[in-house]
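ok so for the tutorial part 2 we go from a plain amino acid sequence to predicted C-alpha cells. step 1 is just haveing the sequence, like this:
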Amino acid sequence: MNTRTLCLLAMAGGAGTAQADWSATLTGASDYLFNGVTQTGHQPAVQGSLDWSGDAGLYAGLWASNVDFGDDTEAEVDGYLGYRFEFRPGYSVDAGLALYTYHGGRDSSDADYPEAYLKLGIAGFNLNAWYTHDYSGLDVGHVVLMLQKDFEINDRWTIATQLSRSTSLDTDRFAWDGDRDHYLHWQIMNRTSYAGFDLALGLSGTTLSDEAGDTAVLFTIGRTFTF
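step 2 — the prediction. this is what the C-alpha cells look like for a chain of 227 residues:
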C-alpha cells in the first residue's frame, strides 16, 4: 500500500468514537512508491480507499491502486482490519491485519500475501512494524521497521519524515538487489491542505541499486469525503 503512509495503511480509526463513521478518499500520485520502490514504473497512479471506523477504535477498510510490474498485473486491492487506542495524550497503540491482492493477469494472485502490523505512537514519534510469513507469495518471511516524525511548521504546513528498513528473513528464497537481505528507505514530504484537498510534495529514496528504488520526486493530491 502507498508508501505505508501510506502509505502502505491509511487508517480511519480513532480512539473512543461514539458511533461508526464512513469515509472515502481519492488520490492522484505522480508515482506509487511502496517503501520507496515504484509499483508503477515511475508512472502516475490513481488510488482510492473506503474506510469504516467504529466504536472504541475498531476500523476496517479497502484500498486500491493501479500498478505496472511489466506483466499483466494491472491493479492492487488491499483490505485491512485493526484496532487503535490512545491510553494517554500523545501515546497510542495501533494493531491489525492487512491482505495485499493483485489483479489483471492469470497469475497475478500468486503474489497475494497477508501481513500483521503494530504501530506505537510515543510523544510525537511513530514506531511501526510489519511482518509477513509469505512476502509476495514467495513463502518467505519479511519485516519492515519504520520510524516516523511530523514537524508542524505552522497551522497550514507540516514536514513529514520517515526512515524504514525492509528485511528478507531468507535470502535463499528472496533477496534485495540480488543478494542483500535488506535495504533502507527514506522520505520527506511537505504537506498542506487547500480548498478541501490534501497536497504533498517531497522526495523519496532507497539504498537499492535497482532503478525501481531510485530517488524520486513525489507529488500527491487527494480529497476525503465523509458520510
